[in-house]
């Protein structure tokens, strides 16, 4: 996660016409933007790349008219989502599957002795978690990804999704509750089998 002060400074440098700041922004966020865009248009990766390129061209051309921001990532995600929405001419449907392979990993902090067991456990449960996240409704999947993998604030997520912060909290609560219920059921079944 970038320092908000550094983000604001980089954004201001870019707005003042600093080409190095512009290139830094591009290189810092292009992979995350591409991964995010593929969640909406996995069938057309070229469209995602075109939208990212169009976005950065637009930003450069309109830099004099842009306001300040404390989170470049949030600003870019919101802008890319809007561009994809316009280009696809249909409501966006968010697909979570593959987000973990796209550079996002769940990490566990374990002792050296437990590495092998932990590795197997992590792979199995990560696979189960991805499967369960994939079963969530599209809006909940997107909120989970933006909050827990992209580390956006609930307010930033609300702006990206064009909903109220209260709706974001509700989406996250429902998603977490669904995941918690699934894993609680799995644990109860496991413990029940162990007692037999």
Explain what you see.
The chain is an all-alpha fold and 196 residues long. Helices cover 70% and strands 0% of the residues. The longest helix is centred in the C-terminal third of the chain and has 31 residues. The radius of gyration is 19 Å and the shape is elongated. About 8% of the residues have low confidence.
Lay out the secondary structure.
Layout: H1 4-15, H2 19-38, H3 45-61, H4 72-88, H5 115-135, H6 138-149, H7 154-161, H8 165-195
Strand content range: under 5%
CATH 2nd-level architecture of the largest domain: Orthogonal Bundle
Helix content range of the residues, please?
Answer: over 70%
Main beta sheet strand tally, sense and closure: none
Form type: elongated
Order of helices and strands: HHHHHHHH
Can you say what the CATH homologous superfamily of the largest domain is?
Answer: RNA polymerase sigma factor, region 2, helix turn helix motif
Keywords:
196 residues; 2 domains; 70% helix; transcription; sigma factor
Give a quick rundown of the structure.
The protein folds into 2 domains: 1-93, Rna Polymerase Sigma Factor, Chain: A (Orthogonal Bundle); 117-196, Arc Repressor Mutant, subunit A (Orthogonal Bundle).
